[in-house]
Write a structure and sequence with these properties.
3 helices, 9% strand, two-stranded antiparallel ribbon, single chain
Length: 91
């Protein structure tokens, strides 16, 4: 691929990412409207036509790795696992 082709691909990618950001903002706005409607009806579920809209609380439990590292560094070191990945970026 030539340098010119690469430049064009980067420009196309940047334009598509801007479009995706705009779409994501629009998606979030619509989701917020639906959540507000659920809240105003004081419910976690509404059935509309063939759609079931839910906004339900979800609980999860996670380990506080910062606290474990501070209070039990030997345990943290024993159970820590280092992973490697690759990050793609264009500046």
């Amino acid at each position: 691929m030539s340098s010119n082709d690469l430049t064009n691909k980067v420009r196309e990618l940047k334009e598509l990412k801007l479009m995706a950001d705009d779409l994501n903002a629009e998606i979030t706005a619509i989701e917020d409207e639906l959540k507000a409607e659920l809240t105003s009806r004081d419910t976690t579920e509404i059935i509309v036509d063939v759609f079931k809209i839910r906004w339900t609380p979800v609980s999860s439990t996670r380990l506080d790795s910062t606290a474990i590292k501070k209070e039990l560094p030997d345990v943290y070191a024993r159970y820590s696992k280092t992973t490697e990945s690759r990050r793609f970026s264009i500046a």
